[in-house]
Amino acid sequence: MLNPLASINTMFYNLGFFARTLRGVGYFIRHSQASFRILVMQILFTFVYAMGISTLLALAIGAAVNIIGVPFLTMLNQQQLIYTLLIIIITRELGPLLTAFIVIARSATAIATEIAGMVISHEVEAYISVGVDPIEHLAVPRLLGVTISLILLNIYFSIFGLAGSYIVTQIISSTPMDFYFTSLLQQLTIQDILLSIIKSIAFGAIISISAVIYGFSVERASTEVPVAGLRAVSGAFALCIMVNVLLSVLYYVILT
User: Taking the domains of the chain in order of start, what are their residue ranges?
Assistant: First the structure.
């Protein structure tokens, strides 16, 4: 049975850790040239190395929306709605969430296990002993790296998802390229773009902070390292899904 008091303490600890990490962002930007390499490597691993799987998934989603949606909407004589569906599914909803899932599967595990290994090997204690703040040196560049990568990966996913749907559109019916992309841009609003970016920022913060917290939570046994990785993945998955639902509901409540 879960202990309510322990759950509340954990929640406040996580919020405090997040606030402490955010406070370290300004110092990192101004002074932490030594940690800049960690930021660059994090973006390289999280964004650049994930572009391949993101391309495949985006093209598949865009194709699936057209293959399923076009015949159904044609029967209803509502073919123009396919562009609205593409924006809703790829840009507003699935794009941010699926890219978050990709990052969770790849980066959350890597960050949690890497930091857990550093704790086990007393490397974090060594940082503290020489006056280096482990949060500013380890947590902040990962927060920035994962968040920036998720924003870029989300944009990349949307572009390829919409481009992939155009390829399938050409197979089903010959739609001029200018008409297709003009129709998409007419349905794309500033609110859609802002919601997509806000989701990416929220997911990036959740994934990176969850991974860092679970990495720091290990104690002495090396067997705790893979457990920290698994807990980081499951925790980030659950939080991202809940936040995605919350932001989508707020979006529809505000605009309707």
Answer: 4-29+48-255
